[in-house]
Amino acid sequence: MEFVLGGFSGVCAGFFSNPFDVMKTRQQLQGELMRAQDVKNKPYKNIYKSIQSIIKAEGWKGLQKGLSAQTAFQFTLNSVRLGAYQTLDDYGFLNRDENGKLSMIRCVIVGGFCGFLGGTASCPFYMIKVQLQSQSASSKYAVGYQHSHSGLIDALKTIYTNNGIKGLWKGYTALVPRNVVGSSVQLSTFSVCKNFLAQYETFADSIFLRAVVGSGVTGLVTCIFMTPFDTAATRMFNQPVGKDGRGLLYRNLIDCFIKVTKTEGFFGGFYKGFGPNYFRMAPQHLLNLTFWEKFKELNNKFKTR
Question: What is the rounded CA–CA span in Å between residue 64 and residue 83?
């Protein structure tokens, strides 16, 4: 049940945060491997311009591009990582003391391990999500390599036909660090914040308030640490591949970091899309972790009956 609750909480949150994910993806691909001064067309310069460009090219529905893949990704990722995290906590792996206080080091390690499991299971859906979100209906607003998938099922068939089962895990080496860093920071920060807030009367009796405040802090901290790996994953998953299934722009994660840093600079390249990424993460974490807490609360009430 813990795995199902984690999956549904991710799906609920993913629906609301997907528009910011689309903007984030396109900002990360804008000016790929180009010096800043050489990028003349910037349709996704900021959040406002991104919304404007997407609506002009694709209408309001463009803001929910790749929602089917997003839903599949969020359910797979969060059912595994949140379900595993809660299960390991139930079995005492987070090493709570007699007062229920968590071990920060244990939280980071267990969170990273759960992120690794979730990333491994959800990799194909993440890749397709990126490729669908990057597709624009107008060449004027297109950034990065443009795939021609009509949807989730079509993308799965195309990738499998062209590159086999391995093709569905192409770029896996970039997703693992992203999810390990993201989950270790997210789950440990959220757990520590939640326990810290529980000491105060205002928050002690309200799971919702603890989740809201804890998620806001967690979103910012996670965004700072995870954005470079998130950008690298977006670049590697969206790049064109040759007949042998190898990427034509980046050989691996290290090659991606070197090439982007040389041409775009580290902060100029890897922190592209930081704004929409935070506005994606803050509500994503708020809704995801809040739904998760509420679903667990309802499940516990149901068990007691």
Answer: 27
Instruction: List Cβ neighbours of 196 (8 Å cut-off, separation of 6 or more).
Output: none
Calculate ∠ Cα 182-188-189, nearest 5°: 85
Angle subtended at Cα 110 by Cα 109 and Cα 115, rounded to the nearest 5 degrees: 100
Q: Which helix (H) or strand (E) holds 187?
A: helix 172-197
Question: Residue 59 pLDDT more than 90?
Answer: yes
Q: Structure tokens of 222? A: 């996670």
C-beta of residue 276 within 8 angstroms of C-beta of residue 50: yes
* Interhelix angle 207-238/274-304, nearest 10 degrees: 130
Contacts of 131 (CB under 8 A, 6+ apart): 66, 147, 149, 155, 237, 238
* Eight-state DSSP code of residue 148: -
pLDDT at 259 over 90: yes
Give the pLDDT of residue 11: 79
CB atoms near residue 35 (< 10 Å): 12
The closest of 184, 192, 24 to 119, measured between CA atoms, is: 184
Phi, psi for 220 (deg, rounded to 5): -70, -50
Q: For residue 147, count CB atoms less than 10 angstroms from its CB and return exposed for 0-12, middle for 13-18, buried for 19 or more.
A: middle
| Cα distance between residue 36 and residue 33, in whole Å | 9
pTM of the shown model? 0.86
